[in-house]
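Data availability (excerpt). The following record was deposited with the supplementary files.
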Amino acid sequence: MAKLEQLSELLVSEISQFEKTVQRLERIQQEKIGLDSEALEKLLLEHQEKMKKDLSQYAIEMEELGGKLEEAKAYPIWALIVFGLSILLNAILIFMVLF
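Predicted structure:
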């Protein structure tokens, strides 16, 4: 009988510990601990706005560069060859006249 009483007491104490643990879990569940993501969302929105602004600035700069490249004077290769040959021929003629 003594063993039966000890087992009963042990079972009652275990059940009471289990009930206390269940009550703690219920309190934690009722508190509904949530994550506050407002700061992260704000940071992401600011970053997105900055990226949009930078991208639009980049597009403007590329348009300006394209315009400057179109306005730049580029000479065809044949014109450069003719110019170089004329300078060479003038140098030869001057050398022949002087000597």
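Summary of structural features: The mean pLDDT is 88.
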